[in-house]
């Protein structure tokens, strides 16, 4: 069982020698300083207010409360106008009333001016919370889960280290972090979609989502200041936005590169550093991976040029004190990356120790403080190294892996992008012996249902008939990201007149990422991507030959490999993506369009695609979303796979296959 231990009282140490440029530790007073500023995510035109340095919270004017009431009232009025004369059936009325109800929730939650809000004190966290504030349980009452408003309490000054974690503890914390990040990404994607729909421009949804979650008390690790690893955050985890680092508690500063406990909150009046971000903001940094020469903060002008000498105070002194007391520091690297939602990516690379510090003359001729950090041994491979390795694999795979590739495209050019087959464990090349298919093969009678498409000549709008099928709104934003999961999604299909580039044709466009089927000692065959996959992005279809219930019984007797889509429906993983119940007390997940119980099976014993090699997980990073586009038969939907989280390159993709077979106990495809 994991234990949270208070950090060692620094007063027990003898007084350290006075550092250069600093007074003695006994009477040390640290003034408010300009932090070491690292480049924030790429600004957009919507970001007009200046960011407040040295604060872990975003500017309150950038949160949803800054949106005028007319934003949401206009959204409701336009939606009401689109309903009239389009669908008078009881189901249609229920659909649009539900849509209005959700819009009203957003209006009442976010549109109230900041100065008029009533603040409610946050309840004292559970002392057994293991230094992490858990995501509210859906089974608890709504009033207890999410209060209307909470006063944002400052971060705790208590230093702790989480130790003695078992397998169950790791799973628990990982699930807490996973759910919190899913809420953040869902809220961010929703905000982007709403801003595009109303104003036709992008907004700083990362700041808005973080601000809303902070007001709801959903930021993690606010009740303790954790030294060392953050439970539930793995080495190699990727983040697109700085604010997401704050939400999970990995780095508590929204813009400063050094996160530390200030001197006024420390037990002996000395600051202690807990994490740093390395993103190339200082010219004197020297990053060699396992060995890092890190430059202190201060002395730069608005153009990030060194203009004065640095001082040993604030974060600079905190790093020096961490070296003196032997305290490990979390290192996050940030750099530009194609395929990221922000154009940048932040990757957690593990724990380092500060082994040396000195004052030196920098490249600009001004004095700077430098720190030498060494990565602690016996940690997983750095995520930044994996990203660079995956980039090389995408361009010249045989140059870095001369052995192991059995095929550079098992799809035989049927997919838009080649699908690799890699096995450096044994001589098994089984995936090459099956006929590769791109999409599921349905029986002819599945297409007998009437399929009337839209008549949109240009791009489809929200009043499109296909949008009305989905409850009055499209399921994807302008970038093809799933806004929230639904029982089934209707896409524009073969009977629609809209262009192939229509935003409502996401899952029909095939594979977009470089996928690789690989041999694993743990899961047998598995699937991973050489590209970074964004949360909510489409991955591929789960393809096989569709069988009726009677046909499935006969094929099962022959020992064929069958997959039952009803098990995906039972897990309802689609409901987790876009679930805003932690934000709204009376949030109701989408129930329309509804889908009946699925009674068909899918035979993958002879014809299959890359998705059939994904392994099972009770905490998957991929979900099944039912989609219809080439027919309207609800009994036979396509099984489309979407990412539930940001998936780093070379991390295995996993699905929740549902309950195990009562006879074999197996969850995956089995012969």
Describe the structure.
By secondary structure, the protein is an alpha+beta fold. The chain has 3 domains: 3-63 and 127-380, SRA-YDG (PUA domain-like, Roll); 69-105; 398-655, SET domain (Beta-clip-like). Helix content is 21%, strand content 18%. The chain is built from 12 helices and 26 strands. The strands form 7 sheets. Strands 4, 5, 6, 7, 8, 9, 10 and 11 form an 8-stranded mixed β-sheet that branches. Helix 5 packs parallel to helix 6. The protein is globular and about 75 Å long. The model is unreliable at 14-34, 42-96, 109-148 and 661-671 (pLDDT under 50).
Please render the helix and strand layout as text.
Layout (H helix, E strand, L loop, with lengths): L2 E4 L62 H15 L6 H21 L31 H4 L13 E5 L3 H33 L5 H11 L9 E2 L11 E2 L2 H7 L9 E4 L10 E7 L7 E2 L3 E5 L19 H11 L3 E8 L7 E18 L5 E9 L7 H13 L1 H4 L4 E3 L12 E3 L12 E2 L28 H5 L19 E2 L24 E6 L3 E6 L8 E4 L3 E3 L1 H9 L4 E2 L1 H7 L29 E3 L3 E2 L6 E2 L5 E7 L9 E6 L10 E2 L16
Parallel strand pairs: 2-3, 6-9, 13-16, 14-22, 15-24, 23-26
Antiparallel strand pairs: 1-2, 4-10, 5-6, 7-8, 8-11, 9-10, 10-11, 12-13, 16-17, 18-25, 19-21, 20-21, 24-25
